[in-house]
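The pair is quoted verbatim below.
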Amino acid sequence: MEYIVAVDIGGTKIAAGVLNKENVWMSEIKKKSDTSSADNMYVSLLDSIHEAIDQANLSKEQITGIGLTIPGQLDTEKGLAIYQNNLPWENFPVGDRLAKEFPTYQLAFEHDVVAAALGEWSVRNLTDELFVYITVSTGICASIIHQGKPLRGLGLAGEIGFFPVHEGQVLENYASGSAMERALKLGDPNSTLADAFRRWEQGDKDLDSFFQDRAYQLAVAIFNVTAVLDPDRIVLGGGVINNQESFFKLIKDHYQLLCKHPLQKNWPTRIELSTLKGKSGLFGVAMKASVSIKCDELS
């Protein structure tokens, strides 16, 4: 039986779980990230791996692979955490350390958004189709999958958060979850994004223009991605989208209004919500680890 530990590393929490060959999660845990130092962060990672294995009632020897998602700049071949904005790692050799700790395991590493894209792609039974996953969360980013492989460019492919919007701002600093909450706190220091969404859904007119503007800018970004790449599917996920389906519908309404040409008639039907929600990255990196194991067995 193949058992893979999948770990999604973030600046506030680490999510981990064990996935079996039937794609059933045998354990699911979340732990707070200790970002006080690089070594303490690594210990948090190790603790998460061991806890996920223990919760699955498995021994360390039964695990066949580990898949890790890491945000920021990452060497996916070596597992080198080059630079992470919200982690205390800089050129940190996660791969080398894990290889010493788990010498018999197949290790796989992936950027968190790419891993989420691979997860969403894999559950849709796609093959050669061009697929785009967009996350709207603390930041905004996209990942492009073609024939099952991520397109990386020189390393920054899919960084749609850099798209300019208005008044010298970029999309990520205007419509990401963290940016929206910062803007809301300028009017009310006690305001949270979740509370603002709740009041908006209950008919707060003062918040309507706020969310309309952000949804419009996100729709324009998605429209531009569609116009350039003509993907078969665009899936939206991330914390903001996964928890606010009304906001997703608003984005899609704005997107539909942008599709004026007859050739764009079916474009809105290509926009979908995340299927895996918060487990997209975990599932995607587990799939990558599984493929690595099969390739290793064949070689």
The longest helix spans residues 205-229. The radius of gyration is 20 Å. Residues 83 and 183 are 27 Å apart (CA to CA). The chain has a mean pLDDT of 94.
